[in-house]
Specification:
By secondary structure, this protein is α/β, with parallel strands linked by helices. It folds into 5 domains: about 55 residues, DNA Methylphosphotriester Repair Domain, CATH 3.40.10; about 50 residues; about 50 residues, no CATH class; about 70 residues, Double Stranded RNA Binding Domain (2-Layer Sandwich); about 80 residues, Arc Repressor Mutant, subunit A (Orthogonal Bundle). Helices cover about 45% and strands about 10% of the residues. The protein has a 4-stranded mixed beta sheet. A 4-stranded mixed beta sheet has the order 7-6-5-8, sandwiched between helices. The protein has a two-stranded parallel ribbon with strand order 9-10. α3 crosses α4, α4 crosses α5 and α14 crosses α15. The protein is elongated.
Length: about 350
């Protein structure tokens, strides 16, 4: 073995830090005392720095006489980024299959990464932490089972909830109603509905006892009533009361002068990732805009611009949560559920305000 081959070098501070933290790096390191070369993310015991040699490629390490590690398999010709992504996606599949939530230590050990590095990479790639991902998938399984008409207790256990009593305690936050009501299509849920003309056309507002749950813009009152009726097909729709009329007036004033802001009680539910995106939207000040890429960076998922765009598009109260302030990377105005012309008018009025 020729450990001092011209293609090898001692680790500099940045590369030794990557090895020590098991972080990504576009290089390989070999250990002279074992004759093995690894990726920086390898979970094997860290070597002493004086025994480490750095190579730019796996081929260079092999030409120098080192053999591939059997734990991190550096000889596999995939990029470090693709390798980490594959490990994180495998962890997602493991979480999907698990009856009980796997511990962070177990997931990291299976992914052959340190716990800190695994947690950071999982959140970067998926957009939420492993704990948040598991909670969202479990809630989705419960909703799917109840939607198929599965008995409530069976649906709870099948989804991975060990204690039905705790689900009933948190049912309003998980489902917006009791599991039994969700299973039956929410019959009898009372939704207040109101309509008004605005500078952008007809406005429709639907609200529960907790707050506004839907906002719609359209060409006619009949069109909006039909949309809201479809959305809440099994609920009991009633007319606006004084509280809802006040909210309608506030929204109409906001449409006329968007710089005034809009502060309403909301009743919106979504995945943990959607909620993070919606909170970030509410932090964009009037008159300002961000790109989808910038919004993805703000929620800690810089490589998930498409997922962020989907979360923006599924926002059910798209004036109270101002998704019109997200634009294309080149400054173009596009991608608004109620038409580009309405989005442009809102932005123009916000920018023109003192």
């Amino acid at each position: 073995m020729n450990a001092t081959a011209p293609t090898a070098s001692r680790p500099d501070a940045a590369r030794w830090r990557a090895i020590r933290n098991r972080a990504d790096g576009a290089f390989y390191y070999a250990v002279t005392t074992t004759g093995v070369y690894c990726r920086p993310t390898c979970p094997s015991r860290r070597p002493r720095p004086e025994h480490v040699r750095i190579f730019d490629t796996a081929e260079a390490a092999e030409r120098a006489g080192f053999r591939a590690c059997r734990r991190c398999h550096p000889e596999r010709r995939i990029s470090p980024e693709a390798d980490v992504r594959d490990r994180v996606l495998a962890a997602c599949r493991a979480i999907d299959r698990a009856e009980a939530p796997p511990t962070l230590a177990t997931l990291a050990r299976t992914a052959r990464l340190s716990r800190f590095h695994f947690q950071r990479q999982f959140k970067r790639i998926v957009g939420v932490s492993p704990r948040e991902y598991h909670a969202a998938r479990r809630r989705a399984r419960l909703q799917e089972a109840l939607g198929r008409g599965t008995a409530v207790d069976a649906a709870l256990y099948d989804a991975g909830y060990g204690s039905p009593s705790r689900v009933y305690e948190r049912a309003d936050r998980l489902l917006g109603m009791s599991p039994g009501a969700y299973r039956n299509g929410a019959p009898g849920a009372v939704i207040r509905c109101g309509y008004a003309r605005t500078a952008l056309g007809w406005l429709g507002v639907a609200a529960t006892a907790r707050g506004v749950c839907a906002l719609e813009l359209g060409a006619s009152r009949a069109e909006l009533a039909e949309r809201i009726g479809r959305r809440f097909a099994r609920a009991k729709l009633v007319g606006a009361d004084a509280e809802l009329e006040a909210w309608l007036a506030a929204i109409g004033a906001f449409v006329a002068a968007p710089a005034r802001g809009l502060d309403l009680p909301l009743d919106v539910r979504g995945t943990a990732f959607q909620q993070r995106v919606w909170r970030a939207l509410q932090e964009i000040p009037s008159g300002a805009t961000v790109s989808y890429g910038e919004l993805a960076r703000r929620v800690g998922a810089p490589r998930s611009a498409r997922a962020v765009a989907r979360a923006v598009a599924t926002n059910p109260v798209a004036l109270a949560i101002p998704c019109h302030r997200v634009i294309a990377a080149d400054g173009g105005i596009s991608g608004y559920r109620w038409g580009v012309s309405r989005k442009r008018k809102l932005l123009e009025r916000e920018r023109a305000a003192p």
